[in-house]
Amino acid sequence: KFSVDDKLSSRVAIWVGDITFLEVDAIVNAANNSLLGGGGVDGAIHRAAGSSLKAECATLHGCQTADAKITGGWCITLKYVIHTVGPRGEKPFELEKTYMSCLDLVKEHNLKSVAFPCISTGLYGYPNEPACKVVLKTIRNWLEKDDNADRVELIIFCLFLKSDIELYEQHMRKFFPCS
Ligand code: AR6
Description:
Layout (H helix, E strand, L loop, with lengths): L5 H4 L2 E5 L9 E5 L9 H10 L1 H8 L9 E5 L7 E5 L7 H17 L4 E4 L11 H17 L3 H4 L2 E6 L2 H14 L4
Parallel strand pairs: 1-6, 2-4, 2-5, 5-6
Antiparallel strand pairs: 3-4
Ligand AR6 binds next to α2.
């Protein structure tokens, strides 16, 4: 059970809709190993960012599963897109590492706000509830470490499906309780 910490809890939020609409320092892309685009949220980000994003991604030589790479936002009015590749299927350690790789880049680039989609829970088939718990635990632990909660102002969980809204609302209360 996680303790009440209003400061930590104020650093996380749920938002429902298309991730490309968010005005944050960086959005995270649930990409594939090629980083050259695909369906789902990856397709939406590449459509919104335009062909320059694909051109920049082509210089990155792909991305290993659970690793992350950063590019500009191009036609999306934000500083960065963090491209990561989640695991295929239910692999909690890999999912945790995927989020951690993105958070390493958030720290490295001194980003104040970042939005995550529900990585791996679409085409890659990670069941939604176990994924939600791994994600919230990983973010809670990361915010508790060192002065991470002072560095980052807002971590947004960008939800797209009705089922995820219910899950995140339910589990946010446990992982990020408020007084
Ligand atoms: N904004 C926010 N979330 C979205 C959007 C959007 N515009 N569109 C879909 N989602 P998925 P994965 C949600 O399949 O499981 C791609 O082809 C979606 O409802 O995009 O990690 C890549 O190239 C789901 O909740 O990513 C890879 O090949 C979540 O985003 C593969 O899919 C993730 O679903 C990666 O699969």
